[in-house]
Amino acid sequence: MMSPKQISDDRGSSHFRHTPFQIIHVTGNFFRIWSVYSMYRYLNQTGAPVVLFLFCCLLPSSFIFLILQKPWKGRALSNQQIVPSLINGVITALYFILWGKGLKSCGPLRAILSEYSGAVLGVLSGVLYGRRGHVWKKLNKKLPSKDSSDTKEEELVTEQALGLMGMMIPVVAGILSALRRVIARRVSLKNQQKKRLHAITITSATCFLFPLAMWDLVTGSSSGKAVELPFSAWAFLATIVFGIILIFYVDNIAEERLHMVFSSPRHLMVAGACIIVMEIAYEMDFSLPGFIVCCLVLGFGIYEATSLERSKKDSSIKSEDGPNGILGNDFDTSPVLPI
Question: Any stretches that span the bilayer, and where are they (predicted)?
Answer without folding.
Answer: 48-69, 81-99, 161-179, 199-219, 231-250, 262-282, 288-306
